[in-house]
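Mods, move this if it's the wrong board.
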Amino acid sequence: MAETIRTSEKPSNSSSLNPPSRIICHVCQKQFSQYTCPRCNSRYCSLPCYKSHSIRCTESFMRENVVEELRHLQSDDQTKRKMLEILKRFHSEDETEPLDEDVDDSILSDDTIQKILSGGEVNINDLSLEEKKRFQRALAAGELSKMIEPWDPWWLKPAARTICLSKDGAQLIQPMANREDLESDQPSDIPCGPKTPLPSLRKLISTEPSPLLAVHLVDIIYSYCFTLRVYNGDWQSDAVGSAMMVLSISSVLGQAGQPETVQEALCYCLEQTCSPAYRHIGGLQFGLALVDDITNLLSLGSPALICMLCDLQRMIMAAERELKSEKQRKLRKSETKSKLKLAERKVYFIMCWVHEQPNKALSSLAAIVSAEKSSLMEYGGNKSFPRTEKNVAGNKGKALIEEM
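Not the wrong board. Structure tokens:
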């Protein structure tokens, strides 16, 4: 039996007994139209007909709704705002391109749009197959990097030279009346120092601290600068990933290594930077630039170094908290937590040691690092560095710190 189509004849006069004429849906030609497209004035009867009547209209409607919702996002949710802004820019670039009436691959899926509008996070698995391909092509071409504002390391800012801490190493308490005046001298992007006084080394160990701690400080600074530059200064977006990256670069924190010279410490870090896991980031040139970061931080003196180590400690502790909420195999999770806990204790001990070091000693260490960079640049055309495995694995049983 053929499907019936409801129609009506157009009467000459309209009244309560003789209703006005009704227009058939322009899409299905079966039902009476109840709506009008605000863009093309086409009449349609239902949502499916609206979606199929013109891809130009539906895509424009979807984009305008997403953009309008982006404008009403809360300004304090920085992570979601950055991600949604990148999505908005990425999709707005397609508005100038010619559209294909037969292909519906340039708009986000309904589920993804609903997730964005509800304030949820969107990852690569939420995109369609075609959207994933386009995203990967843009990523490979470096187009997405233009949408990210470059991060300026806090240790290169003039305010980093004016960091002040109390005599016991804790951060100073600033009166509310002077807070606005101090904001220009010490911006919020400079890490805060410890909230509590740092104990004396005599309370932590029963013997004299090892002279190799200066070398270990170089290793730790390199891994911190490496991670912050890779994460564009925002380690809070992935505390676990940031902390594990620090442990993978640092032989002291991640491998229980004990390099005996500055050259050995730098060579190990450069080897990790040039390894297959990280060589795409910048290779040797990127690593040599990080050596300059070490020199700059050491030149700032103990206040800046304490703030740096305190920031690294907060990163590791945040990773420990996030790890508790993640679902992993118990054995692997236990091993990771043990590594993070041991690394956090080492960072705290180094922080206490730095607090007792005179700035003259730190300046001398900066000069040694600068001199080692000149010798390491000779390896610019060679992928090999002086071997450091004996300090990574051979010295694991040698304790530097004896706890009371």
